[in-house]
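Each lists sequence, tokenised fold; shown next:
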Amino acid sequence: MTVLAQADLRLDAGFWDYTLIAIYFVFVLGIGLMARYAVSNSLDFFLSGRSLPAWVTGLAFISANLGAIEIIGMSANGAQYGMPTMHYFWIGAVPAMLFLGVVMMPFYYGSKVRSVPEFMLRRFSSPAHLVNAISFALAQVLIAGINLYLLATLVNVLLGWPITVSVVVAAAIVLSYITLGGLSAAIYNEVLQFFVIVAALFPLTMVALQRVGGWDGLVSRIEQQTGSGAQTGAWPGSELAGFDSSVLSVIGIVFGLGFVLSFGYWTTNFVEVQRAMASKSMSSARRTPIIGAFPKMFIPFIVVIPGMIAGVLVPELARYKQTQSAQTGVDYNDALLLLIRDLLPNGMLGLAISGLLASFMAGMAANVSSFNTVFSYDIWQRYVVKDRDDAYYLRVGRVVTVLATVAAIGTAAIAATYSNLMDYLQQLFSFFNAPLFATFILGMFWKRMTPAAGWTGLVAGTLAAVTVFIMSETGLVGLPGQGTAFVAAGAAFVVDIAVSVAVTAVTAPKAEAELVGLVYSLTPRESFYDPRDEGQAWYQRPTLMAGIALALIIILNVAFA
């Protein structure tokens, strides 16, 4: 982000701005200290003792995803591509979240597994479990690096510290409360951070819309700037998908983003599933992603729209959008910071900065807290040091939290090389999430799938995605925008399925008795009954809530087509 080296872009924070930021940090660290006293064993540290109510885990579920990548990345996407960015929410998130709550959470929560890789171990075997655990751990360190880099850039803009110093200080902030209170500290801070983020971005959006002449004024200025209406309607989103054909663009968005990448992320990514697993009952676990779906569908109005406004209202960014020249001193990742710089007065500036800090810390804390669980349970306890007492694994979890944070400092350097971090993020998802979703969904609904097919499909799918990426980087395949990630995800999914079916045909499956609770057709519905859910009100039924959310998503897609 070249903008961050420019002294004239320093955010002019005053006394009241710093006061608001200081108050926010007092609350963050206070929550970590209070959560520390609730941690008596490893289950408390890694899964909050499975004791949290649905509204808390639901807000944490969405806040964990509302990190630096979401705020900066989606505003960057808004500045670059406009309204088609809404697909990351309305097509690429909410449907998969509803599927997770209605169909998949009963298997996760009912099986009493502690992580997604542990589910893979029980459904398949140790090789599939180890491949999934290692790939997940690597992905979280890489993604934590993105969040950490963006958190450090904000410290750099605010205080003028060198970026290296900012990275270390930002890492220490997150590390302090995660090490103290584990997942509970992360979750309760994520709830706080959700409200701080909304309180910061909603006023910014309103001020920016007023400055640009309202929605009609924004549409008019974007169409004048781009010479078309492609960025003022969600469909077909050809620039985003990288296809000239409208038909191929819709197929790429619906299949590549809406099915493979979206379902691969939301239904198998332990960062999100971990929040639902911390719930106090089966119904609470199922409602967690469904509750999160309601704010998720409206968040783009305070994230994407400001990015679109910055693309036409901020002179430097408007020039960059026209020329794509580094000489402008900015790139799309700077959209939100530039808008804050130009529009917000002191006091409001402090609130906005607190909101950005909140989002960056929420994202990194989610990565680190899920990493320490998978590393401690699924790698260290399973393959390195077995059969030790619980206190030992609790200590391992705290040490690993420190090591993951240090590793994220290193991977932050990779994030610094991208002008639009969503390009990088979607590529990572195509490597790690798309093949996992193929293996997972096939194994859940096809009882014949064998343990050997589980790990070979995962490896083959990942290699397929990496191959597409290499072909794109070397010029063999030319796909602008995020089309490479969409194609890589589709290739990973198809290759994983094909290899899994082929290997299953020549290898032996597990006995059906071993798959009860892990395969849909072999699991009686009564096994998902939870007596703690007795007396539940009609409006708390997960399927009803999911139906309402789905109807709203259809309305939004039609209204902004």
